[in-house]
Amino acid sequence: AQSVSQHNHHVILSEAASLELGCNYSYGGTVNLFWYVQYPGQHLQLLLKYFSGDPLVKGIKGFEAEFIKSKFSFNLRKPSVQWSDTAEYFCAVNSDSSASKIIFGSGTRLSIRP
Amino acid sequence: DAGVTQSPTHLIKTRGQQVTLRCSPKSGHDTVSWYQQALGQGPQFIFQYYEEEERQRGNFPDRFSGHQFPNYSSELNVNALLLGDSALYLCASSLALGGGLSGETQYFGPGTRLLVL
């Protein structure tokens, strides 16, 4: 069965620090990968997505993620975080054989110290 | 451009009762998915509706049922509520792609927070 692992449950950084949130998935076939963000009091928003092509994907607000197929990973990065990046981040995956169903990780809470 | 809307925003029920949650998809979308998000967890897929039929279902009991209307809006029904059904229920809409299903991006609504006492 498909699954998504986010190993960092809570990450605390200072403003201007670099960010990398880990995401690993388990599925042997073709996958589509997503990062969603949930700001305090707001609904889930799509940060970026990978379907095919260039494994380095750029999203909104300066975020990017790299798909490494050999490692089953899709880590999220940002070179310099801001206080406004405080939020919950969810990695998610679906597959061509089960495209309706998106499997989410348990999330990583990011806290930024001003 | 209206995004995904859900009603009600909050709901309190008691064990054994039944509840109906509603969702209107983003303008131009024809597919609705429902998710359950327990506190501190990621969303879990319940089912998806397309062309008024359930297209795929996650690992949820038959107490969870749904419906999609001709205008693409959708309802989620939960019967015989249990304490463990307390969660945020999310609706997501997408536009079905022709042929294969891959590549659909789902857009989420604000959710309905259900508390079962």
Tell me about this structure.
Chain A has 114 residues and is mostly beta strands. Chain A has one domain: Immunoglobulin-like. Helices cover 0% and strands 56% of the residues of chain A. In chain A, the strands form three sheets. In chain A, strands 2, 5, 6, 10, 11 and 12 form a six-stranded mixed β-sheet that branches. A four-stranded antiparallel β-sheet of chain A has the order 3-9-8-7, with no helix packed on it. In chain A, β10 (87-95) and β11 (98-104) form a beta hairpin. The radius of gyration of chain A is 14 Å and the shape is globular. Chain B is mainly beta. Chain B has a single domain (5-95, 108-116), classed as Immunoglobulin-like, CATH 2.60.40. The model of chain B has no long low-confidence stretch (mean pLDDT 91). The A-B interface holds A 4, 30, 32, 34, 36, 42-46, 49, 51, 90, 92, 94-96, 98-107 and B 4, 31, 33, 35, 40-45, 48, 50, 55-56, 58, 90, 92, 100-111.
Task: Present the secondary structure layout.
The complex is a heterodimer of chains A (114) and B (117).
Chain A: E1 3-5, E2 10-14, E3 19-21, E4 24-26, E5 31-38, E6 45-50, E7 56-58, E8 64-68, E9 73-78, E10 87-95, E11 98-104, E12 108-113
Parallel strand pairs in A: 2-12
Antiparallel strand pairs in A: 1-4, 3-9, 5-6, 5-10, 7-8, 8-9, 10-11, 10-12
Chain B: E1 5-7, E2 10-13, E3 19-24, E4 31-37, E5 44-50, E6 53-57, E7 64-68, E8 74-78, E9 87-94, E10 107-108, E11 112-116
Parallel strand pairs in B: 2-11
Antiparallel strand pairs in B: 1-3, 3-8, 4-5, 4-9, 5-6, 7-8, 9-10, 9-11
Structural category of chain B: mainly beta
**What is the string of SSEs of chain B from the N terminus onward?**
EEEEEEEEEEE
Record field, number of beta strands of chain A: 12
**Net shape of chain B:** globular
Structural class of chain A comes to mainly beta
The residue-averaged pLDDT of chain B reads 91
